[in-house]
Amino acid sequence: MRGENTIQLNDLLIQCVRCRVAQVGDTTSDEAVVFVHGNPGSRFDWYGVLPQVGAFSRAVAPCMPGYGEADHPAEFDYTVEGYARYLDAMLSELAIENVHLVLHDFGGPWGLRWAADNVERVKSVVLTNTGVLEAYHWHKYARIWQTPILGELFQLLTIHPVLRLSLNLDNPKPMPLEFTRRMASHSDWGHKRAVLTLYRNSRSTAALFELVASALSGRNIPCRVIWGQGDLYIPHEYAERQKRYFDAEVISYPDSGHWPMIDEPQRYADDVLEFLRKQCLTTA
Fold this sequence. Notes:
Radius of gyration: 17 Å
Number of domains: 1
CATH superfamily: Alpha/Beta hydrolase fold, catalytic domain
CATH class: Alpha Beta
């Protein structure tokens, strides 16, 4: 068994797409906490909490196709269903059967679509500024990305100074420089193309969440919802709505935006670890 502060990196070839996965804890266990980042994110988004999970559970945090250190191929199926299938194949490769999901941003639709097809394997869920977003209207950047030509031009202009300015204007507090630099370093044209394709394939939020809502409602899956109230991309009102689909408790961060794990890393880690320790020991 590996110590709580030891992160093991593995490069996996799944569906002909290479991804990099960070792991902690007992890598032979068939039960794991699975961290799924959103857009634009990577495995690094979880490093404020991931190492500590290894003290009581196996945990994995991949870079998903088109993001971070994964391949950014043109031919990948950049749809919610495509990512759910990829996640399923990855869990199979890692021999993970029982799952505690920790999701953020577009990791919510990806992970919850997988959960809808594998309800019996889902032991708990942590939702971070994401969830079942029925009747959701896309934010300003999504609408730009969904518009041909305008989306391409906007992406070409999104270099680090522009990215950092945009994020800071939309967040209650400045984002750490290391965070925005890393995000920009992963943003080659393959990544930008992935973002455009994903959002253009995801225009109908009703289509994204109807099946998920039906599959998860009434299952009483334990859930902790953590939401930055200053989120300008997914409004805080959706936090309480998750109680329709999960046995959920909601924790709101008044001074955080869309990335509470970056805005308040210690508080976020404490809240996630408290929940996961209880859930992982319950299912052990």
